[in-house]
Each structure stands twice: as C-alpha cells, then as structure tokens.
Specification:
By secondary structure, the protein is mainly alpha-helical. It has 4 helices and 2 strands, in the order H-H-E-E-H-H. Strand 1 (about 50) and strand 2 (about 55) form a beta hairpin. The termini are far apart. Pfam families: Glutaredoxin.
Length: about 80
C-alpha cells in the first residue's frame, strides 16, 4: 500500500475533508487513468491530489500546503470544509 497516498489522505482528513479517492491499483482501467493523469498533470506518481479540478501535486506538495495553511485555505474556498 502506498505510504504517500496514506499521508495525503491523512492530511486531508485532519482538516475535515472527505476526499473522493480513486484507487488505481484496484481498477481494470487504472493504467489508462494513470496515463491520462500524466498527460493532464505531467505527474506519473501517486497520489495526485486535486482541488476544484486542479492538481495541487502529490504528498510532498500537500504536506507543504498543509504546513503553510494554504491547503486549509483552498479547501475552505472550495467549500469542502468550513
């Protein structure tokens, strides 16, 4: 299981967000989705975190945004959390 994915999920959960998660390794079309994400975001690793249909990056960027308060701000702006 992906420790980076667990980290990103925890960061979001700690702020009260309930993310929509697509487990690529559990889907028959997981490889196709990952290829499309690479085309869309130029990132081929997971997690690939999106807020309001925009990729914010992976676990490291999610952590940086959490540390700076930017993650909470964006989630509030998107009305995902209060």
């Amino acid at each position: 299981y992906c420790p980076y994915c667990k980290k990103a999920k925890k960061l979001l959960a700690d702020l009260g967000a309930t993310p929509f998660v697509v487990e690529l390794d559990l889907r028959l079309d997981g490889m196709a989705i990952q290829e499309y994400l690479l085309h869309l975001t130029h990132q081929n690793t997971v997690p690939n975190v999106f807020i309001q249909q925009k990729s914010i990056g992976g676990a490291d960027m999610t952590q940086k945004m959490s540390d700076s308060g930017e993650l909470k701000h964006r989630l509030q702006k998107a009305k995902v959390i209060a």
